[in-house]
Prior knowledge:
Layout: H1 15-25, E1 40-46, H2 53-68, E2 72-78, E3 92-96, E4 100-102, E5 108-110, H3 117-135, E6 139-143, H4 154-162, E7 166-172, H5 178-188, H6 190-196, E8 200-204, H7 220-225, E9 226-228, H8 240-244, E10 254-257, H9 265-277, E11 285-288, H10 295-305, E12 311-314, H11 320-326, E13 329-332, H12 336-344, E14 349-351, H13 360-371, E15 375-376, H14 385-394, H15 412-424, H16 433-438
Parallel strand pairs: 1-2, 1-6, 2-3, 6-7, 7-8, 8-9, 10-11, 10-13, 11-12, 13-14, 14-15
Antiparallel strand pairs: 4-5
Helix pairs in contact: 1-3, 2-15, 3-4, 9-10, 9-14
Amino acid sequence: MDVRIPRDEPPNCGFDLVSARLARLGEPSGAGVIASPKYARVLIYSHDSFGLGHLRRCRTIAHALVARRKALSVLILSGSPIIGSFDFRTRVDFVRVPGVIKLRNGEYSSLSLHMDIGEVLRMRASIIHHTAEVFAPDVFIVDKEPLGLRGEIQGTLEALRARGTRLVLGLRDVMDDPALLAEEWERKNAMSALETLYDDILVYGLPQVCEPLAGLGLSRSMRRKMTYTGYLESARSDDAPRVQAATALPEPFILVTPGGGGDGEDLIDWVLGAYESDPGLPHPALIVFGPFMRPRRRQQFRMRIARLDRVEAITFDARFENLMARAAGVVAMGGYNTFCEILTFDKPAVIVPRRLPRLEQTIRASRAAQLGLVRMLSDEHGRDRAAMAAALRGIGSQPRPSDVVVPGLLEGLDNIQRLVERWLDPRDERPGAARAAAGATR
C-alpha cells in the first residue's frame, strides 16, 4: 500500500523508522494499479543547502512520473528545511537529511544542529546511503551536483551502479559562466563522475537558450549521454480557494517574486521605490518575499508597503503557481523554476537577474531576452526608480512568451517521462532506444 510520512513525526527520522517506511513504500495496492511486471522505484537526490529551486524542480519531476505510471513510487532525498510545507502526490514521499547552509565565504555550516559540519556531512551521507540501500531504486536521479554536497553521494552512486541502478544526472539549462564551472567541477572531480558513474545526463532546457556544459571539453562518450529535454512545465494546484484568499488585490496585479528570498532584497527595494516615486502606476503589485528573506529586512519592507495603497505582500505560498496564473505580469530575479512558470502561464515578465554568487540568472535572462521571451532589466549601473517604473508601466503591452515560436520549449516533463518509461522497461534497454523514443534533442 502507499505509505505517507506523517507530518507530526520528526523530519530527520532514525534508520529503523526509515527502513520500515521504505519497505512498505513499494508495495502495490490491489485496486487502481495498472498491471506491471514490477512495482518500480525512482530515487531523487536534491542537496538543498539553501533556496527553493532544487526541491521544487525535483518535486515537479516526481509528480509527473507518478502521474504517468501507476506502478511507480518516487522518494526524494532533501535537506530543505521547508520540504514539509509542500503537498506531495500519492506515491511520492521524502526523507529529509540534516540541513546545511552555505555561508558568504563559501564554507558550509549546519543549519540547525550544534554540530561540526564534518559530522553533519557524515550523518547525511550515512542516511542517504542507507535509504538508497533499503529503497533499492531502479533509477537514481541526481539534481545538479554530480557527487552531491561535498561528495556525500559518491559511495551511494558506486553501490547503486554495482547493483544495476540507472544513474542519471539532471542539470538546469544554465549552470554558471563556463570558465567558473570548469574550475569548480575540476576541484570537485565532477568530470570523472560523469565519465565513469553516470549512464545519462539530462539538461532541463534547450541548446537554443544555453548549453550548460559548453567549454568543459566533454569527451565523445559524455556527449552521447546528454539529452536536452526542454523546460519543465508547471502544474496548477487544484486547491485554488486557499490561494484566492492570499491577497485582496483587485486583478490584474503584478506579481513580484525573488524566489526563495534569501538574496532578493535589492529587487524588492527597487520595485517599492518605483511605486513610491510613481503612485500612478497602472497595476497594483503583490510581493511574495520568500521564506528565506531575513525577518528584519522583511519587516522594514512591510513598513514601507503599509504606506502604499496599491501594494500588498505575503511571505510564502506553497501553491505559488496559482498566483502566477492570476497575475497580469511578473517581475522576478530569473531563477530556473520561476522562468519555467513564466513560460507555462505565458506571462509578460521583467527579469532582474543577480550576478553573484553565480552568473546563472544573468546568462538565462540575457539569452531569453535575445529570443524575445522576456524583458531583462539590469541593476548593474544602479537601481533607477524611473527605469523600474517604466518597465512596470510597459508590462501590460509587452509581448508574451508564446509570441515567440521555439520548438520543444516546454516538452521537458513529457520527454523525461518517456525516458524513464524506457529505462524501467527491460524490453527497451537497447542502446539509444530511450533517446529515440523521447524525440528529445541531443
